[in-house]
Amino acid sequence: MRNIKVINSDWLFSKNAKSAPSVCPQDWESLNLPFTWNGKDGQDGGNDYYRGTCWFAKEIKASDLPEGEEVYFQFDGVNSSCEVFWNAEKLAEHHGGYSTFRVKVEGIKETNVLSLAVDNSPNDKVYPQNADFTFYGGIYRDVSVIGVPKNHFDLDYYGAPGIMVTPEIKGNDAEVEIKTFIKDDDNCKVRYEIIADGEVVASCEKDGDDEAEFKLENVHLWDGLRDPYLYTAKAYLIENGEVIDEISARFGCRSFKIDPEKGFILNGREYPLRGVSRHQDRPDIGNALLPEHHKEDLELIVEMGANTIRLAHYQHSQVFYDLCDEAGLVLWAEIPYISKHMPNGYDNTISQMKELISQNYNHPSIVVWGLSNEITIAGAADPDLIRNHKKLNDLCHKMDKTRLTTVASVTMCSIDAEYVHISDVLSYNHYFGWYGGTTDMNGPWFDDFHKKYPNKPIGISEYGCEALDWHTSNPIQGDYTEEYQSYYHEELIKQIADRPYLWATHVWNMFDFAADARAEGGENGMNHKGLVTFDRKYKKDSFYAYQAWLSDKPVLHICSKRYIDRVEDITKVTVYSNCNEVELFANGVSVGKQTKGKYPFFYFEVKNEGETTLTAKAGELEDTSTIRKVDSPNEAYIMKEEGDVINWFEINTPDGRYSINDTIGDIMSTFAGKVATVKILLKIKNAFASGKDGEDGKKGGGLEIAGFQLSMGMIKNIYGMAKGFTVKRAFSMMGGKFTKEQILEVNAMLNKVKKPKK
């Protein structure tokens, strides 16, 4: 029979080793898996975390191996490329840091050394290479050793479980096809069973690789959050009347379709997919998660009321897929084909997609396979990029006839581009209201797409903005305050709620995550667009906005609890609730009652005098917070960003004249403003003339923002979105390339330009 043993303890690690050891070194560091060497330096900013080759080794005695005629090692996640050695002899290599792979070993001695050279260094053939997150190096998921008889269910095909279960709903019943894959199936038979609630409800016996077909009458559906019911399929390999190997897979019976007008439909009923994207990393440990970390993430997402997750931008842990099956969440699963198309990476996209589908085929939670994310940042016309996507699309349909394909397209990509129309369905990453533009641009953009392509299902794969522990009563785009993030998501919720044709919407992101190239918001190395902080300890106000919109459980939340000291005489208090009526009290005195309107947001005005205890009541629910009148702003609430050398009082803003506090779009609305903008662009071009290589390989081809190299052509494509940026914010995103004096010089230029009379 199959025997499996997890071997995460007692490993050795070295950053300096050069070759595979034949005996365990005495001077290597001892550690247990899972482990990443970038848990600290991959989260502190500077884009300088270690990317290279490190070595892992473990002594394995023959007596410690599980019983079996053949022995395999299974690696659930090694980032991003690795070579596997057994007693200093190379056995295999693997390229792709997020999927399971297995290696068969032979020549077992009494004492053996298993070693891996693990490499996360930059290259041009293994995805991802350019992306807004940290590529943690290490063995960051479980390692197991598997003992099996000579004849066994296949362990060699793309890390797959060896069993495929395909249910198809037919009225009240389900037809279930089960296929297994056998290594050396000489004279073997397979007994199949389907188990429901601990009881065998169907069984049969087949020869070798023959498929089994069952009919489940009055099938119990996997029905999303309402009833995520799971069956279990078991397969027993029989040789000479004896069971020699056994595998199983849980599965769910459900139907779905994606309608361009009605959106997502589950089991015949409209089921709008509204949820989040997820990055998996955590403070200090990066991607080296334990099962309890996955469980906590899942529980927070369900608590918020989401019914879907986009698992970005890579294959996630089987632990998490299993939890989503059990909870009833609908998933978008994708490979890390992201940001920059690499001509030498074609084979890697194919192998990573084969692994993704093969390893996750049985999960009922998954409904779409994602081909790529923002891959057209440098343009959508590259014939090689188009070819790559068509091959991936065809591969998905060949391997899985039950699911659809999708892509996450970037704003700058034209809706008429060939790339946009390769996949079955489509979503766009839009940040109108954060990276330029305004929040009210989101809904109309999708209306325009829907009008032009009424038969193409369209959704939102990313939208969001950043928030840290900064606060204000007058939030503005780009201020990184919790209040602006709340405003942003309130506006987006309103626009999404009014557009049922959006097949899925995914907030970017559920959790803050590490992106070592970033230097924004006052804390380097992080992307702070999460609805929950990186450590999972604090739910930002926007978390409760979604909970009030999506959850079936009663919700009541007063916003801005961390914003106590306020200077204004009358202050705005926002309350989120899905209850019909909310009453707010200030020091026990009612400020007023409000009845819920179309959206679950309540806005009150409160006198700010002395110290005030705010109490919101809705039915049996109650929430409290405190505000306090102060004479001057609390400096602790104001962002102190490294390199942000200009104070607000240093910026001259004469009446009726432009300044760097105005948006690019407003400045460009006048002829004199256009002239000034051209002069500013020439300054920027000159400043970057000695910068990094452009996409043509020549110096001065572009500039770098948040770790991405942008060519001048790309900058032109971004202009439509960037019109919403203030000039000051545009400069702040250029990584400290400009001094305070240079920026104030630009401000002086703009001060000469008159604003149009209202």
Name the CATH superfamily assignment of the largest domain: Glycosidases
User: Whole-number radius of gyration?
Assistant: 28 Å
Number of domains: 5
Largest sheet: 8 strands, parallel
Number of strands: 47
Please tally the helical runs, counting DSSP H or I stretches of 4 or more residues.
12
**Residue-averaged pLDDT:** 92
Helical proportion, percent range: 10-25%
CATH fold assignment of the largest domain: TIM Barrel
CATH C-level of the largest domain: Alpha Beta
CATH architecture of the largest domain: Alpha-Beta Barrel
Share of residues in strands: 25-35%
Order of strands in the sheet with most strands = 34-33-32-31-30-29-28-35
Are there runs of 5+ residues with pLDDT below 50, and where?
690-703, 705-709
Oligomeric organization of the protein chains: single chain
The span between the termini is 82 Å
Shape: globular
Structural class, from secondary structure content? alpha+beta
